[in-house]
UniProtKB/TrEMBL annotation:
CDD domains assigned to the protein according to its UniProt record, in alphabetical order: ALDH_F5_SSADH_GabD
Tagged with keyword Oxidoreductase: yes
Domain Aldehyde dehydrogenase residue range list: 21-481
Assigned EC number: 1.2.1.16
Full protein name: Succinate semialdehyde dehydrogenase
Keyword Repeat: no
Length: 485
């Protein structure tokens, strides 16, 4: 990896605790999903290291908490600047470990950095309140204070942004944090830590525990069981979210969970079909379909169904699949072979139950993990693909006849993260946006996430919101003070 970087010192293979790089007896391997090449051998920590990281975060807490919001903002701004200056190197590291095309990786660096910038600004604006008293001899106030030591457990699909979306509000609020990045993408996280040191973020404020899949489970238990840890923020599968929620019950931790999605994408008969196709491509095929807000089910009105399918299939021919390091590639590999197998299983199940393959439908020959952008028509609710998240580049299309049916089909899911629809009718836009049982609704757009908007889901898609002016509250406790005069 070093040979690809302008600043090779951003490539780190050791974990990061209390401002020190930490090795381990045995390491675990990180592979490039495009080539299967071994690209790094990273410290494989365990529960005892997790205890050390918690202790470091606890030790660093008083001094960090006692800085003013403005002082923390200045340090964070420096971190933002360094991340931004290192965009090219961070994107390269990300593409090599995660697979997404280089331009898309650079986009994620900007997106990830935007949380650091935003919450650095918000650090100065934390404010309590003074309610009017109803007792003449007493006065009341509400203080907002940092919750304390926090934990972030993050996934591989956004190796930088899922970390900064948690760490930035935590730091801005005055909290310290222990991060357990995904075992498939630890290198982006470690590069961020190197930049945090350079920005002057004090020792122990940020700690990174790298570990393989098995050790991650053990570390997770330690982090959840610790009474010192007051908040756990997790992004990943609903299955693991449930486990962590259970593990946090004994110590009654505050939880933020960003879990699975199963986003519907509805095209009404009054939609601008060309715009809907552009939105569908952006929403479905970004990151090879591996985001929790990717459209996973397309409901298209019967009147415009054939037209939409034809234009969608045409647009897909412009997607260039390949190694993300090659110029012009717009779709990289899937993260691992198990991900490809899931896409294959969903496609095979749909076809066996009567779906029509419009385009794609098989792996490419570029490597083990590449899958063609795929469209299936004639899909119905009995098929696996309409019931669970595919997390791959497969677009199933289901026709519908009226608004009530479309909304009912869209809401028929235990998940409630993102949803999308296309219509030009203002009445319909209000009614459908209100009726969709989702935390986020994109109307006439397939891209909705940024640092200003509250990101999060309802039902089994999770708890809490990240980013936005609301994202900071997650890391603040309210304290009510009553003063007798
Ligand atoms: P994905 O479906 O995105 O691979 P996972 O939910 O499996 O997501 O993993 C997301 C993160 O959760 C990763 O950092 C992974 O190491 C971690 N993880 C997975 N299982 C556990 C567990 N039982 N305890 C703690 N962390 C876990």
């Amino acid at each position: 990896i070093r040979s690809f970087l302008k600043d090779p010192s951003l490539f780190k293979e050791q974990a990061f605790i209390n401002g020190q790089w930490v090795g381990s007896k045995e390491n675990f391997n990180v592979q490039n999903p495009a080539t299967d090449e071994l690209i790094a051998s990273v410290s494989n920590l365990g529960p005892q290291d997790a205890e050390l990281a918690i202790a470091a975060a606890e030790k660093a807490l008083p001094a960090w908490r006692n800085k003013t919001g403005k002082e923390r903002a200045h340090i964070m701004r420096k971190w933002f600047d360094l991340i931004t200056e290192s965009t090219q190197d961070l994107a390269t590291i990300m593409t090599l470990e995660q697979g997404k095309p280089l331009a898309e990786a650079a986009g994620e660096v900007a997106y990830g950095a935007s949380f650091v910038e935003w919450f650095a600004e918000e650090a100065k604006r934390v404010a309590g309140s003074i309610p009017a008293t109803t007792w003449g001899d007493k006065r009341m106030m509400v203080l907002k204070q940092p919750i304390g030591v926090c934990v972030a457990i993050t996934p591989w699909n956004f190796p930088i942004a899922m970390i900064t979306r948690k760490v930035a509000p935590a730091l801005a609020a005055g909290c310290t944090i222990v991060i357990k990045p995904a075992e498939l993408t630890p290198l982006s996280a470690l590069a961020l830590a190197e930049l945090a040191i350079r920005a002057g973020i004090p020792d122990g404020v940020i700690n990174i525990l790298t570990a393989d899949a098995n050790q991650s489970i053990l570390i997770g238990k330690t982090l959840c069981a610790s009474p010192t840890v007051r908040h756990l923020s997790f992004t990943g599968s609903t299955e693991v979210g449930r486990i962590l929620m259970g593990q946090c019950a004994p110590t009654v931790k505050k939880l933020a969970l960003e879990l699975g999605g199963h986003a519907p994408f509805i095209v009404f008969d009054d939609a601008d079909i060309d715009a809907a196709v552009i939105g569908a491509i952006a929403s479905k095929f970004r990151n090879s379909g591996q985001t929790c807000v990717c459209a996973n089910r397309f409901y298209v009105h019967k009147k415009v169904h054939d037209q939409f399918v034809e234009k969608f299939a045409q647009a897909i021919t412009k997607i260039k699949v390949g190694n993300g390091m090659e110029p012009g590639v717009t779709q990289g590999p899937l993260i691992e072979t198990a991900a490809l197998e899931k896409a294959e299983k969903h496609v095979a199940d749909a076809i066996s139950k009567g779906a029509k393959l419009v385009t794609g439908g098989k792996p490419t020959t570029q490597g083990k993990n590449f899958y063609e952008p795929t469209i299936l028509a004639n899909v119905n609710s009995d098929m696996l693909i309409t019931q669970e998240e595919t997390f791959g580049p497969v677009a199933p299309i289901i026709p519908f006849e009226n608004d009530e049916e479309a909304v009912a089909l869209a809401n028929n899911s235990p998940f409630g993260l993102a949803s999308y629809f296309y219509s030009r009718d203002i009445g319909r836009i209000w009614k459908v946006a209100e009726a969709l049982d989702y935390g986020m609704v994109g109307v006439n757009t397939g891209l909705i996430t940024n640092e200003v908007a509250p990101f999060g889901g309802v039902k089994q898609s999770g708890l809490g919101r990240e980013g936005s002016a609301y994202g900071m509250d997650e890391y603040l406790e309210m304290k009510y003070v009553c003063v007798g005069l």
